[in-house]
Specification:
This protein is an alpha/beta fold. It has a six-stranded mixed sheet, with helices on both faces. Strands 5-7-8 form a three-stranded mixed sheet. It has ten helices and nine strands.
Length: about 270
């Protein structure tokens, strides 16, 4: 069986034929810095081709699944936007690799999933969440385009009208609301989460693996088609807005703990 790679910000663990992938920056609520961006892409690459597993379980260490972007890292990228271009390509790898994994990917959303964290959770096949968790994509709150996958997956899960409402407004939803509208599968009391996740993973592991994988691949075909159409443009626009005055103002406002004051920006249609 293939040895597991060792990462600084991600923990890989075998549980029989299940591969657990844990975002492991608990002190930072598993917020994405440069290392977690890079290692997330590498860990998913490994999971995709791992012959030792039939199910992938994706979760977070500590109190959150992922709080989105690390503030210090966001501030650094705003000051050096050329460095963000690397992360655009890494985000592209993360999204496309999640869509290409043929084995089922189950999300144990143990806490808040925000921004890229929400996108990663939503690109999993089945999502079980702690009912205390919240999920949302507030890119627009910091003057950025939701280009790293939100425009791909939200509408497919809950329809275009609701997706636009939540992506344009940047609202965080409770897990209960997310389950009610079909954004996630289940919102459960914390004490019931692990048993539900374990039971579902065991069900998948005992099933006909070829049938399960081909069915998963079929249901992902439309998501992959949409990704091929919109992902590169979305990432390009996110790269454009990371250089904008609105993003710079949003970062200053975060640091100063105040509401941002955005200007009026002309957009070429």
């Amino acid at each position: 069986m293939t040895n597991l790679p060792v990462f600084e910000t991600i923990l890989l663990e075998r549980r029989g034929r299940l591969l657990a992938v844990t975002l492991n920056r608990p002190d930072s609520l598993n917020a994405f810095d440069l290392a977690l961006h890079d290692e997330m892409a590498a860990a998913l690459d490994f999971a995709k081709d791992d012959a030792g597993s039939d199910v992938v379980l994706l979760t977070g260490a500590g109190r959150a699944f992922s709080a989105g972007g690390d503030l210090d890292h966001i501030e650094h990228n705003a000051a050096h936007p050329e460095k963000f271009d690397h992360e655009i390509q890494v985000a592209r790898r993360i999204v496309l690799t999640l869509l290409d994994i043929s084995k089922p990917v189950v999300c144990r959303m143990n806490g808040h999933a925000v921004g890229l964290g929400a996108t990663i959770a939503l690109l999993c096949d089945v999502i079980f969440a702690d009912e205390r968790a919240r999920i949302g994509d507030p890119h627009v709150h910091i003057g950025l385009v939701a280009g790293d996958g939100g425009a791909i997956v939200w509408a497919q899960r809950i329809g275009l009208a609701r997706a636009k409402e939540y992506l344009l407004g940047g609202e965080l939803l409770t897990a209960a609301k997310a389950a009610e509208i079909g954004l996630i599968n289940h919102a459960l009391p914390a004490g019931e989460l692990d048993a539900a996740v374990d039971a579902f993973c065991a069900k998948l592991l005992s099933g006909a693996q070829a049938a399960i994988r081909y069915t998963k691949m079929l249901t992902n075909m439309e998501l992959k088609r949409i990704a091929e159409m919109v992902l590169d443009q979305g990432l390009a626009w996110e790269g454009e807005t990371v250089r904008s005055a609105d993003h710079a103002e949003a970062v200053r406002a975060l640091i100063e703990k105040r509401a941002p004051v955005f200007g009026r920006t002309s957009v070429q249609s």
